[in-house]
Amino acid sequence: MLPSEDVQAVIDAVRKATVDAVRESNAGLEQRLAVMQSKQEEILRGFPDSDPDSHRRYHESVMEWRELRNKMVREALIQAAKVGGVGAIGWLAYALWISLKMEIFK
Fold this sequence. Notes:
The protein starts with a helix and ends with a helix. The protein contains two helices and no strands. The chain is mainly alpha-helical.
């Protein structure tokens, strides 16, 4: 049994509304996609030679250099503290020796 003309008209209207809604949705998505692509291209132009990977590698090398520098400074400070501690002990021993000599040879 075929649907009546009224039912068929309703079915056709629903189909047309659905197709129109999908087309509008796709058009909106395509427009948003185009905007996003242009923004991505603009961001990429901000990197030297439009190459974000080389920019990332540059920053990684800078961070690696800073880590190495910080390690060297830390080690130098530790060494200076050791030498300073040994020097302080030596100075105290010398001062004690001098004071003992002064007491003994009064």
